TrEMBL record:
GO terms for molecular function: pyridoxal phosphate binding; transaminase activity. The active site is at K191 (proton acceptor). The lineage of its organism: Bacteria, Bacillati, Actinomycetota, Coriobacteriia, Coriobacteriales. InterPro entries: DegT/StrS_aminotransferase, PyrdxlP-dep_Trfase, PyrdxlP-dep_Trfase_major, PyrdxlP-dep_Trfase_small. Keywords: Aminotransferase, Pyridoxal phosphate, Transferase. CDD domains: AHBA_syn (cd00616). Transmembrane segments: none annotated. The keyword Transferase applies. This is Pyridoxal phosphate-dependent aminotransferase EpsN. The modification N6-(pyridoxal phosphate)lysine is found at K191. Its EC number is 2.6.1.-. One of its GO terms (biological process) is polysaccharide biosynthetic process. Its cofactor is pyridoxal 5'-phosphate.
Amino acid sequence: MDIKPFEKKVWLSSPTMHGEELKYITEAYETNWMSTVGENINEVERQMAEKIGCGYAVALSCGTSALHLAMKLAGIKPGDEVLCSDMTFDATVNPVVYEGGVPVFIDTERDTWNMDPVALEKAFELHPTAKVVVAAHLYGTPGKVEELRSICDAHGAVLVEDAAESLGATYKGRQTGTFGDISAISFNGNKIITGSAGGMLLTDSKEAANKTRKWSTQSREAAPWYQHEELGYNYRMSNVIAGVVRGQIPYLEEHIAQKKAIYMRYKEGFKGLPVSMNPYNPSVCEPNFWLSCMLIDANAMCKQVRGESEALYVSEPGKSCPTEILEAIAAINAEGRPIWKPMHMQPIYRMNAFVTREGNGRAKTNAYISGGATGADGLPLDVGADIFHRGLCLPSDNKMTPEQQDVIIEVIRRCFE
Ligand SMILES: *Cc1c(COP(=O)(O)O)cnc(C)c1O
């Protein structure tokens, strides 16, 4: 195969519009509801609550603002330790800090790439005062929500579910976003459906939904003037953004089917290579397949070293590494991405505790700096660092054609030659 760069860039995951978005935006314009009030907002709240199966969906400016108000509802106070997913986008944990909370990072499990329930249990032993857990579903694959839920219940902790990446994914037939006491979803531009921006807080509690509505519109009290008893925020979704979301909602299932086909095509295309896809257990869950990811077998990794802002690798026959593959993908005008760098490895969170299934993860050296601890499987005990080291996100845009995907697969195969 003679490989030439794509004329038009193949994105990691870009917005896919269908036309109806324009109709609802136009409606907002023509009726002059160019505001944070209007029919589109009412409709997306109603439709999403129904689709997901939660009592209330409150439309907000973004997923991060939904998570911020979730932290307030969870009652985080300055100095409180909060047990958080470690391998995730930093928007999962920053809202904890907005409220003065102190994130304690919980290591990742190998079988879902989400918060490890064993490590969570360990964390409650080490941090018994923690009363809030924030768990994300990475790349659209549900974590072990039942286990996480029952550990939270046993310790009287509130579970905040970050379902920003997993809209439409199910666990034992139930939608993600319904397992947390409070959950957040996102309509950011690269999510499975988008409003260009926007997000929602999900809850079964009428009281929590009402508080969220009030806080997100500057906390006005019922009075003839602007009366304030509580701190307010300008976090409400715009009726124009809601128009885009409203137009996208009917296409959620179609997008999921396209993303699943992309995942399966990669899986098939990588047969015989020393790699695996981001894992899930089809007998308990159905992901939304937002991003397809790959993990290189430990013994097929060429030498790769990452500093704080640069990476180096040594190319080797039969082996490869994420840096080499990402460069090869970029060279044909396609977009891949490293795995989310775990929070415990981020300079901003270097002083925070990190708990692996073996206990205090800070006591172990990073496995990729000499002397790192390994488990019985010979793999590093620091699972997040290991997946970050060996994994990457593949171009997963639902407008990518099968022919383009075949070229990407071929380019990756050549990295292992
Ligand atoms: C996208 C994302 C968010 C934040 O959503 P925004 O709408 O961009 O604020 C939060 N958590 C995770 C895991 C995400 O991927």
